[in-house]
Design a protein that fits this description.
There is one protein chain. This protein is mainly α and 194 residues long. The chain has helices at residues 18-28, 34-52, 57-74, 84-101, 104-107, 122-127, 130-138, 142-153, 158-165, 169-191. Helix 3 crosses helix 4, helix 8 crosses helix 10 and helix 9 packs across helix 10 (169-191).
Length: 194
């Protein structure tokens, strides 16, 4: 069964281009090689999101592959009036959070250790590469990394994060505070050449 793609109503240039519309049509029609082309076209985008929520590249690959399975299963439900990448990002984030929810013990930690960490020098921050920052974020615990990404990058409130991760709001705040504290410490260490 094929699902028609409404192209006439797509006006926003940030929406689908003609190649993406045809690719979605081909996937929905079950055309040979369409899913592979779709996967290749969006792999880098999906993987970049998965890396923010994973401990290592192998876990990110698993999140990426699980996300694509969900994308393909629900492609017929995609509202083409909305951004395809935003829809896919939501699937990737939810897939990563589903994996995290399986380990609720780590999510439920609430105590915050107080330490005195000096503010990093602006010059050190400018010297950090994207890879340095990614490594620092990936070195956080899974729960801290998830809350940090959801709050700081995705823009969710602690109430929303608590509901998504099925944790108290205070735990969300605790994980964010710990994440920021650890990131500051890593930047400080880099500043002092440690």
């Amino acid at each position: 069964m094929t699902y028609p793609v409404q192209t006439a109503e797509i006006k926003d240039t940030n929406q689908l281009d003609n190649a993406e519309i045809q690719l979605i049509r081909n996937c929905l029609a079950g055309k040979r090689g369409a899913h592979e082309l779709f996967y290749k076209r969006f792999y880098g985008y999906v993987m970049s999101i998965a890396l923010r929520y994973s401990n290592h590249s192998e876990e990110a690959k698993e999140i990426t592959n699980d996300s694509f399975v969900k994308v393909f299963q629900h492609l017929n439900c995609y509202d083409q009036q909305r951004s395809l990448k935003a829809w896919m990002r939501r699937i990737v984030v939810n897939t990563a959070l589903d994996r995290l929810r399986k380990n609720k013990r780590e999510l439920r930690q609430t105590d915050i250790q107080q330490t005195n960490i000096e503010a990093p020098d602006e010059g050190v921050l400018q010297q950090l590469s994207a890879e340095d920052i990614m490594r620092m974020v990936q070195s956080l615990s899974a729960a801290q990394r998830a809350v940090f990404n959801l709050f700081e990058i995705e823009g969710f409130s602690h109430e929303e994060i608590g509901a998504m991760l099925e944790i108290p709001i205070g735990t969300s705040k605790s994980h964010l505070a710990r994440a920021k504290m650890k990131l500051r410490q890593m930047i400080s260490d880099k500043q002092h050449g440690k």
